[in-house]
Amino acid sequence: MRFFPSESRSKSTAKRVLFLYVFLAVASLFYLFTHLKFNYELENFFPEDNEVIRQYKKHLNQFESEHDLILVSVQAPSHLFDADFLGGISTATQKIESDSTVTAVVSPLRITKFAKAFPVPRPIPFFHPNQPEKFGADSVVLATTQHPIKDFISMEAKAMLLVVKTKPGLNNTASSAVLQRVEQAFKEAGITQIRTAGRIKGQSYIVSKMEKEFVVLSLITIVSLCVFLWFTFRNIWGVILPAVVVALGLLFTLALMLATHGGIDLVSIILPTVLFVVGVSDSVHLLNHFYTEVKHGRSNYDAMKSAFQEVGVATFLTAITSAIGFFTLITVTVKPIAFFGIFAAIGIVLVYFITFSFLAAAIYLLPVRLHAKTAEIVPQSFLNRLFDGVLRWRWSLLAILALMVYPMIKGIQAIEVNNFFTEELRPNDPHKKDFDFFGRYFHGVRPFELTVEVTNSQQSLLDSSHLLAMRKLETYLVDSYGVGSLVSPLQPLRLVNQMNQGGAEAAFSLPQNSESEKAVVDSVRMLSEEMNRFILSSNERVGRFSGRVGDLGSAIFLEKNKVFMDFLNREIEPLGVKASLTGISEIIDSNNEYLTDNLMEGLIYELLAIALLMGLLFRNWRITLVSIIPNVFPLLFIGACMGWFGVHLNLSSAIIFNIAFGITVDDTIHLLAGYKLELAKGKRGRVALRAAYLHSGKAVFMTSIILCSGFFVLMMSQFNGIYHTGLLVGITLIVALISDLVLLPILLGGKSE
Fold it and tell me: Which residue segments constitute the domains of the chain, with CATH numbers given?
């Protein structure tokens, strides 16, 4: 290659290259240690701007956020009405309220109903912690009441729910700290059976798991690759040098990521594994050719120069195509995915240049002549027999592949676009078990938010016709939609009506006639704005329905919402009230639909970009088409696997296609580049194809095994998205290897030797 230094200048050039890398490595390492942090902000996974986001921001400006809280379930050792247990809750509540990041604590022990009295209403508590003689009567009331306190009590589980509201927008560190203080407050009060949930808990929990998995997966990947490299080259330098190359690439990429992106998130924790398994293949191809030349008696310099000439272009193309596969993720307007794609692409290109600069310089400066006892992972005789067998049975093989297309299409059709709040957590995960507990006993953790607004801006939601509309809406949400712990603008009316009737349990209902309705509405309007502002705007034109539902999956809620919208159009809007879904759950569901479409569009761009690259390289439309066909088959297979195994298409799984295609095309490029080189040497037909098959096939096998083993390491993750990425990309690489070794000889096969 023209940029390869002459032998007279190679030693000084090599020393300068190594010095530069040492300097950059030390600087990057220092920056990494001083700036490394992990982020998991749910809002970062939202699109930057769309109608759903704008509506949610408007909702937040009028009412409070529904996810800046910690749900705390405390379980009694024997029964709820235990003086020590109730006393412990009171003590813990007081301590939590003194926390500077806590804005309020909603405790069943403080929830009361009221009886009308002068000069102020008289509170009637449901719990009398200091009066054990009333425990029996309190339990009877709690078992029969329709008051909202029933949503905070689970007699069956002997558990009580408390809601700790925090300041909005707490970062990871603050979330972890306040969660720890809340849990510690209960433990110090003698309450040990505690379960927590909500965004604050999820953010803290996931960040702690991310930190562990980032280290564990990286170490396992490094160890497994080193073992494989040793088995392949049987030479210490064949292990150390590729490992140093990818370590440098990872170090530079992480430093750049932290400097521009600010931290490592749930998507980018797989970046070390990706760079190690994809980047090390460059070193394997280079060293494989280098050692082959050394065995033929060439010097280190001549062997490396030959390696540059023979595999440099093909390896550059594989780096570019892999980078394109990741870079197409920039089409997604969700920052973590877009940034992961950008930095993965940058890292892959960096590793390529480090391979062909640092690795070459290091080998030249080594004081010993390098030899390797390369392991015969794939004997040449096997490749010979495989090549002949493929061409001999080409029509039978094509028929088998054609027959596989129909079941694969059926599998793809079975893919379901779906997402659960605990989608990323494995079934045995403690946080998922806590999540399921809240779903079983406290109506779930998935927030439900609905905005209602009068269509006539001169009217109020508290007008009689609009009250009727909200009554119908509330009945539907509870009975048909399945919303629990529902809070609506009707709740103050029920509380006031009960108060006016002396706190009678049967009076917790809406007024039954227009006269009493007017009196109750007038009383509600006299309440302080502080009591109403979370469910009713100051001008009474906008209201909020808020509650929780079970984590049934976005697919079910998509169907529920279609029926719900039909109900709104038919029953609610004619009464002058417009209702619209909003909140975190709605954003996540709509975002999931948007992302899957967006990522599939990016995959098409990726395919076109790689096809254009192949066309520019080979200047032959037939070879360009041949380069695409063997790589479409693995994508069909991976899609079919998702349908067969019930893997949902969502935020974490949709990127698998982009990753897989960019990597699987590498084998095709190496085989086609080898074929082109053989043609340039004057060989023709099957002779050229066989030579390329035998020469490149060994390296393709080796890199495929490295890639598969590296991605299969990700199956050790406790995050479902990472687990499925490792499993499905690993399977795809195996299918891609088979596809290349079978389809390429058939599509390019010469008729004779």
Answer: 7-42+204-366+379-413+589-748 (1.20.1640.10), 68-197 (3.30.70), 434-584 (no CATH)
